[in-house]
Amino acid sequence: MATEEKKDENVAIWATFRNSSAAVKTILAGVLLSKLGGFLNVFIVLYLTYRGYSDSEASYALGAYGAGGVAGVLLGGTLADRLGARNATILGMAGTAVLTAALLHLPNYPSLVVAVVLASLMAQLYRPAAAALLSELTSGSSQVVVFGMYRWCLNVGAMAAPMVGLGLYHLGGESYTLLFWGEAVIALAYALVAAVVLPRRAARAATDTAASEEESTAGGYRAMLRDRRYVLYLTATLFNAIIYVQYLSTLPLDVEAHDFDLFWYTAAVSLNGFLVIAFELPLTKVTQQWRTKITVGVSFALVGLGVALYGMPMGAAVIIGATLVWTLGEIIGGPAIFAHPATAGPAHLRSRYIGAFQFMHALGTAIGPVLGGLLFVRLGHDVWPLLGVIGLAAAGLGVAAVRTPAPDRTEPADEPAVQPAEA
């Protein structure tokens, strides 16, 4: 019986993909390829030290790369609205290709840092565009599954990218030439495919003219910020991202402070990656039937609870068990949390809503390690319950932020971006 249910889930997922348009398949393939070719953040420190720069200079460059990525997702929302998702994707991928290849030839540190920032920024431009176009091209009943595929591509690409980069490094005779040119070629290939396959911006209906004029006058993001419920959702996203990233920053510090075997920490990280890739997409068959409010609340609460459980006496069972709890939250909520911004506001601001969401998520992952480290220095092992409270606050804000009933996925909501929503 369980085997038949599992088979039905796989069929439904495959049927959703098979019945999707060529543009949707191209976007998903492009997301996978762009993450698969995203070696720069992994190898930039090694490359700069290879060029003779100091460890501190290499670390500053890596920080600049992160800042460029955070700015890129915010700018990407604006460009996707102004240029269209297709043109924003082409611009971002073509720019990434040129700037990544240029790193091999720039003569000094300031020019390298500028190129790193711009390459990171350009590489992120496609993400709001891709998410907005996926939403436009996908029917409401399939959106959670499609965004599950989107996240699956992101996760698989991110997991495999270091190994692909390492392979190109060795294939190029332990030099960075083939590695950076490989990333540039992948980005350029995606830009060319996007130019051929992705649809051009559809003409807006006459009823959208007033909304478009207001957007250009008041500013798309200012209009979005008047949607108070969505601001709550962005705040919940920020809190959740700050808590989520602690397993990569504060947890290893705590494990080391307890002089505990690092094998269990690396096993927990690997287990998280395996479970998300293996089970998140199949589980969307179930979670897509849930109300978004419930999915968001359960997901954020489990992440907060899992992080709080690290505060129990350190041991293998605590590390693995707590990781399993918050991983379950990630699996349950990931697709719905990523899909919600595409339907939370009116169509003419869709890319701004998505860009703001991705910006807050990226900002949280940047703030999280710094905040967690500072708290750990002061509180030590007692930091985990406090972090768990922040995670539970994210759950409460997330539940309050999602409207009930949810907006019809086939029609954009009329109010949120142009009038304050009810608190």
> How many extended strands?
0
Output the radius of gyration.
21 Å
Individual helix count: 18
Average pLDDT across residues? 79
End-to-end CA span: 45 Å
Element order, helices and strands? Answer: HHHHHHHHHHHHHHHHHH
Give the overall shape, derived from the CA principal axes. Answer: globular
Alpha-beta content class: mainly alpha
Let me know the largest β-sheet: none
- Beta content: under 5%
Fraction of residues in H or I helices: over 70%
Q: Which regions are unreliable across 5 or more consecutive residues at pLDDT < 50?
A: 1-11, 202-218, 406-423
In short:
The protein is mostly helical and 423 residues long. The protein has 18 helices and no strands.
What does this structure look like?
By secondary structure, the protein is an all-alpha fold. It contains 18 helices and no strands. The protein has helices at residues 2-18, 22-36, 40-50, 55-83, 85-102, 109-124, 126-137, 143-171, 177-197, 209-218, 220-225, 228-244, 246-257, 262-287, 292-309, 316-339, 350-379, 383-401. α4 runs antiparallel to α5 (85-102), α12 packs parallel to α15 (292-309) and α15 packs antiparallel against α18. The N and C termini lie far apart (45 Å). The model is unreliable at 1-11, 202-218 and 406-423 (pLDDT under 50).
